[in-house]
Design goal:
Elements (H helix, E strand, L loop, with lengths): L20 H16 L4 H8 L3 H9 L6 H11 L21 H9 L4 H9 L3 H15 L10
Helix pairs in contact: 1-3, 2-3
């Protein structure tokens, strides 16, 4: 109670704001490009004068990347700023998953680039065997054989 006998009204704790869809997408593209180059978050941070934690926040979309910072990131990663927006979802887009969403999610994984590099070196028969194995593990239908 206050001196005047009024109840104090507590403000609710501020809710943590969800990262914006486009901010998360741009962040994932930063991660994809960094992983493609085999660069760590720390190394990118050093090149930008940031900590690896700040790079991590950008990649998760928790912090927005300003235009000048995106230009700087693009220079370090060898990609124009527009590259980070290619295929970006529109603000009003629903949450349906598309092949582009799957690709972005996959390429954001740390192991994606070494997996792709190794896969490319395999024979066509070995590739088909791996695809069959992975689709069986995932419970997905076997893809049509494209040898015909």
């Amino acid at each position: 109670m206050t001196k005047l006998g009024l109840k104090e009204v507590r403000k609710p704790a501020p809710r943590k704001k969800e990262p914006n869809l486009v901010d998360r997408y741009v962040g994932s593209r930063i991660r994809i490009r960094r992983n493609m180059l085999g660069m760590s978050q720390g190394k990118l941070g050093d090149a930008l004068g940031l900590t690896f934690q700040q790079v991590q926040k950008y990649e998760k979309g928790a912090n927005r990347v300003g235009a000048s910072r995106l230009q700087q990131i693009g220079n370090v990663l060898g990609a124009p700023p527009a590259w980070f927006f290619e295929g970006a979802p529109s603000e009003g887009a629903g949450k349906s998953t598309t092949i582009e969403d799957d690709y972005t999610a996959f390429m954001s994984e740390k192991l994606a680039v070494p997996l792709i590099r190794g896969f490319i070196k395999l024979s066509p028969n070995a590739r088909r065997a791996i695809v069959s194995f992975v689709t069986a593990l995932a419970g997905e239908p076997e893809p049509a054989d494209e040898r015909a």
